[in-house]
Amino acid sequence: MRFWGYLLLARRDRALPESPVLRPTRHLLLPTASFDGGWQLWHHPHRPELGDLDALVRALADETDAPALAAYVMESDCAVVSGAGPGGAPWSACLGRRALADYMADTGLALDDLFPDPRTAAAHCSAWAAAAGHTADPAGLAAVLAADPGPRVEDLFGNLLAHLGIAPGAEDGRRPVPPPPTGEAPAAIRCEPR
Predict the structure, then answer these.
(1) How far lies 162's CA from each of 43, 141, 147, in Å?
(2) Edge-to-edge strand order for the sheet containing 78-84?
């Protein structure tokens, strides 16, 4: 099995699962990577659902007073990405456009009905990065947003973060680790404050 679930990126002084926004399912959140500047990447299985992605990033951004980003990953094939800054309107994009179009085939909706083209999405991403205090690479972002994901869209998400200026933490020094293939959090793991 491959990963179905959520990737959540936010900047917070304390562990992200302590956020009131995530409190109801905090026991299911697992750390994936830490980045310079206090950025944290966590993953959450697809069940129970976290609700509307736009509302989730808006609430996280407002609570942390920093931009937030979330992705809903579908079987490691593609992902819907949403971002927002504090008090700002959310934006969305997708990774793995061709695979997502296949998932949407039975809905009667076209990909372009819901998501901007890669260049327009790159502009949204660049504005998000600026609000986060980073300098983005717009051409690199457009290339990532137009790319096929290869074996795992989670790797493409890592490339997106790199082009947003989110750098691996000095204590970590590595790229984000993909979530476990099942997408389910092991029952014995708890997210407790350090």
Answers:
(1) 18, 9, 15
(2) 30-35, 39-45, 5-11, 68-74, 78-84, 91-95
Which residue in 155, 181, 152, 177 sits closest to 45, CA to CA? 181
Round the CA-based radius of gyration of the chain to a whole number and report it. 15
Residue 189 clears pLDDT 60, i.e. is over it: no
Tell me if 145 sits within 8 A of 93, measured CB to CB.
yes
Which segments of 5-137 does DSSP mark as H helices, in order?
A: 53-64, 97-104, 111-114, 118-131
Please give the DSSP secondary-structure letter assigned to residue 172.
Answer: T
Per-residue CA distances from 34 to 8, 138, 148, 191 (Å): 12, 23, 26, 14
Domain boundaries, the chain: 5-163
What is the tens place of the pLDDT at every residue in 133-173? Answer: 999 999 999 999 999 988 899 999 999 999 999 977 644 44
Dihedral angle computed from the Cα positions of residues 139, 73, 92 and 155, in that order, rounded to the nearest 10 degrees: -10
Whole-number Å distance between alpha carbons of 67 and 100 = 25
Helices 138-146 and 153-163: crossing angle in degrees, nearest 10, is 170
Both structure tokens of 193 = 């404050």
Question: What does pTM read for this prediction?
Answer: 0.84
